[in-house]
Write a structure and sequence with these properties.
The protein has two domains: 1-93 and 266-290, no CATH class; 97-255, no CATH class. It has ten helices and eight strands. It has helices at 22-39, 48-61, 65-71, 76-91, 97-106, 128-131, 167-173, 176-182, 231-255, 270-290, and strands at 111-120, 133-134, 139-148, 154-157, 161-162, 186-188, 205-206, 211-212.
Length: 296
């Protein structure tokens, strides 16, 4: 049942702007409509468009389920089912790493921006507490790697890993360097990925190129003890940072969905949620690219 107001008071409703395009709403509604047709669902309390609107409001504004359910005449558990249903449908549309790399190679891309970020979560209990605590950020969370184009568009997000995992360790676990090398793509990363290219010191023969591997990982220069950076190295770092700043825009677009401001779900559901948000983010960016511009 929906949440009832306190005796003697009437419920107050208010309107909130949802900064999304109608084409995104229509895309989600079409997914729901097709899913209901497959299930042969005869009746639902809300139409596909109404369910899509509620779900997008939850994902974008992190609205509490009881609050948004009460405003729409449904219970919090019903809103939760709607959200989980749509997240699963969207996550199934997310492109996997192999397909993304093949598309980049077909377009003739040479450099891919690689970076990681921390998604905050609630503090865990038991043995999972330390595993999900990031000493770098001094908070609990999950580490996620992402590939970004030079224009700052998110191309792919990895599975969520425990917060204590370093970015370079996450890349090694996912075999990201090997996958990029197979498609002749060069990763560009920050100082946290120093030494990533040295992983092939254990074997001189690279199965990808059939000989001594000459793959390069682009990283900025790093000052050492009693060896400060030269003026030329500082200028090179400035130019490199100007190129890599695009990756921050990609993460900003993903984190505009406030539901990942601080995750309250189980970590095993985080990967599905992030892939669903990636699909929505990419769709919004494509809509803005194709939208006609008005001249004044």
């Amino acid at each position: 049942m929906s949440q009832q107001p306190t005796e003697g008071f009437e419920a107050i409703s208010y309107q909130v702007t949802l900064p999304l395009s109608r084409r995104t709403l229509q895309m989600v509604a079409d997914l729901i409509r097709a899913h209901r047709a497959r299930l042969r669902s005869r009746w639902r309390k809300a139409s596909p468009a109404e369910q899509a609107l509620v779900v997008l409001a939850v994902l974008r504004h992190d609205q509490r389920l009881a609050d948004i359910g009460g405003g729409n005449g449904v219970s919090a558990s019903t809103v939760r089912r709607w959200v989980l249903e749509v997240i699963a449908l969207l996550a199934a549309r997310a492109s996997r790493l192999g397909r993304v790399l093949r598309r980049l190679a077909a377009r003739g891309a040479a450099v891919v921006l690689v970076d990681g970020t921390l998604i905050r979560t609630r503090r865990r209990t038991g043995k999972a507490n330390r595993a999900h605590y990031s000493g770098k950020h001094k908070q609990h969370g999950l580490v996620v790697l992402a590939l970004t184009g030079e224009d700052g568009r998110l191309l792919w997000v990895s599975a969520a890993l425990p917060g204590k995992t370093a970015d370079i360790t996450a890349a090694r676990r996912l075999g990201l360097r090997e996958r990029l090398h197979q498609h002749q793509l060069t990763p560009a990363a920050d100082k946290g990925f120093h030494g990533w290219h040295k992983d092939l010191r254990q074997t001189r023969d690279c199965p990808g190129c059939g000989g001594p591997c000459e793959q390069v990982v682009l990283t900025p220069y790093k000052a050492e003890t009693k060896r400060p950076l030269t003026k030329a190295q500082k200028q090179a770092n400035a130019a490199f940072s100007a190129m890599r700043c695009a990756v921050e825009g990609g993460f900003a677009a993903l984190k505009a969905w406030r539901i990942i401001t601080k995750l309250r779900c189980h970590p095993r559901h985080a990967t599905t949620l992030l892939r669903a948000l990636l699909v929505l983010t990419q769709h919004e960016q494509s809509v803005r690219d194709t939208a006609p511009t008005t001249r004044t």
